[in-house]
Give the backbone structure.
Amino acid sequence: MTCRKVVSAALIGAALLFSGGCTSLAPITYPVPSSPRLAVPYFPQDDFQCGPAAVAMVMDFNGDGVPLQTLTAEIYSPALRGSLQPALVAAGRRHGWLAWEIFDFAAILQEVAVGRPVIILQNRGLSWKPVWHYAVVVGFDATKGLTYLTSGREEQRPVATRTVLHTWERGGRWGLLLLPPGALPVVADPDSLLAALIGLERSDAVAVRPSYAAAVARWPAHAGLSVAYGNLLRKAGEPVAAEAAYRAVLAKEPRHVPALNNLADLLLQLGRLDEAYAAAVAAVDIDGPYRATVIATLREIERAGGGSTAGR
């Protein structure tokens, strides 16, 4: 049963047939000729509840099942008779998963190729009369031009990949990969990944730690990731590890203001006032958007007695 809103099943079929002649899409890029069909557990859902069911299936596949009833209460909106994408993302984070949004169909297939199911949003209707539906991509076969979807009351349903791409395009080009702690997307840029990690950290600072560590190991030169990881370690009560993270950034970028400021603040907390003062002064001498914050840090260090024997 589809997660429909207003359009009948007959109109869905007509829409899919109609769409082929009105849209020109780029050739489909497959990472490998075929992927294994992932044994994603199948949860039939009631009308309009394809969002919670899709999240439940993916979580259960990764060995950390959350009851469908729980996810339905968290994700499904009776007023909307459906589920919005941010609700799926929030539910993933609430249960300790890294929620990675995907906007490129080739990237979706790459994740599936390495054994990771991906939730996609489809519009199975028309642009002016949409029929929204969440499905889970569980496999593909490039030689046959098929993608396998699990959703509604259909398990591992073979669908022409071109049709999946059409409906995904009409749905806004949105996919969701839910990853357990420590796992990272196959295709990712560090800036976007940092935003996803911060989102998870706000919900679960414990679950996000292995993912931060993996990200820093994968992109050791990305200062933003290392500073954020240092901040996480400091909040976790590990000042030595946090200091090491900040100093690793400064070894590569001595004028990185956030690292200098956060190191100064940490050293103040540890009572190492002269070192804190030196780091804060170095940061204050660099113009930029963080200057007011750095000046406040320096003044706090001075009030604590830092720099009392040093001239400026």
In short: The chain has two domains: 9-179, 194-303. The beta strands are 98-102, 118-123, 132-141, 146-151, 154-160, 175-179. Residues 4-24 have pLDDT under 50 and may be disordered. Residues 54 and 136 are 6 Å apart (CA to CA).
